[in-house]
Amino acid sequence: QLQLVESGGGLVQPGGSLRLSCAASGFTLEHYTIGWFRQAPGKEREGILCIRSSGGSNNYADSVKGRFTISRDNAKNTVYLQMNSLKSEDTAVYYCAASIWAGRTCPGRDIMAYWGKGTLVTVSS
Length: 125
Known about the structure:
Layout (H helix, E strand, L loop, with lengths): L2 E5 L3 E2 L5 E8 L7 E7 L6 E6 L5 E3 L8 E6 L4 E6 L8 E8 L14 E2 L3 E5 L2
Parallel strand pairs: 2-11
Antiparallel strand pairs: 1-3, 3-8, 4-5, 4-9, 5-6, 7-8, 9-10, 9-11
């Protein structure tokens, strides 16, 4: 069965860094566009970054541009989200999602066909 599993979340201080992992099973991740999303308490789920099968990446949110980076390790069938200069407002449950996507931009959350269960990131001193 096709599954995505996030890991790497936890407690980090403001200004710190964290790397999240999204491991795929049941399918070859490199053939899909993978997006990272997050949902803070009381807020809608929002897109962060996506990486396409071609390797190109785009951002959903300007608030993380320059601080977060998405990458892929095809040998490990895993996509990563490197988060630097973390702020308290980055606190959220972070999800990865996958979809077949031919566009040059990131697919919206309604387009994503497969989702992980999320990993919690808490940024606090």
